[in-house]
């Protein structure tokens, strides 16, 4: 099953063999950044190894081991990078809303309902008064 965040992650259509990762909103937690070079490596492994494993639990375990063995393709986002990401994204959206609609922005609607107290404190510093 595919959704818009899959398309965003892969910059296009998701293909069979691409890894699936748990999703959270951009404002929820720092998360990980994945280098694009990892996707074809995982896709090849999927078709060569994982696709042949019938047991779903075993397939997931083997896939996770492969991901852990290739940790050099993953960057754990720092708290500072997280704050910069939220600040830049929020201020740009606020600027556009105020420019195009003429309305002051002081509220934030949490995407997907994934509330984060770290995100809340960052947004409060930026002038958000209601969630």
TrEMBL record:
<dbReference type="InterPro" id="IPR011330">
    <property type="entry name" value="Glyco_hydro/deAcase_b/a-brl"/>
</dbReference>
<protein>
    <submittedName>
        <fullName>Polysaccharide deacetylase family protein</fullName>
    </submittedName>
</protein>
<dbReference type="GO" id="GO:0016810">
    <property type="term" value="F:hydrolase activity, acting on carbon-nitrogen (but not peptide) bonds"/>
</dbReference>
<feature type="domain" description="NodB homology">
    <location>
        <begin position="57"/>
        <end position="130"/>
    </location>
</feature>
<dbReference type="Pfam" id="PF01522">
    <property type="entry name" value="Polysacc_deac_1"/>
</dbReference>
<dbReference type="GO" id="GO:0005975">
    <property type="term" value="P:carbohydrate metabolic process"/>
</dbReference>
<dbReference type="InterPro" id="IPR002509">
    <property type="entry name" value="NODB_dom"/>
</dbReference>
């Amino acid at each position: 099953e595919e959704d818009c965040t899959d398309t965003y992650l892969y910059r296009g259509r998701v293909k069979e063999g691409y890894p699936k990762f748990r999703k959270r909103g951009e404002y929820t937690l720092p998360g990980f950044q994945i280098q694009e070079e990892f996707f074809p490596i995982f896709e090849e492994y999927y078709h060569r190894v994982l696709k042949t494993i019938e047991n779903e639990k075993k397939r997931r375990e083997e896939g996770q081991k492969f991901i852990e063995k290739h940790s050099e393709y993953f960057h754990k986002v720092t708290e500072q990078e997280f704050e910069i990401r939220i600040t830049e994204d929020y201020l740009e959206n606020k600027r556009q809303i105020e420019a195009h609609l003429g309305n002051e922005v002081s509220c934030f609607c949490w995407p997907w309902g994934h509330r984060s107290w770290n995100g809340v404190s960052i947004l409060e510093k930026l002038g958000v008064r209601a969630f």
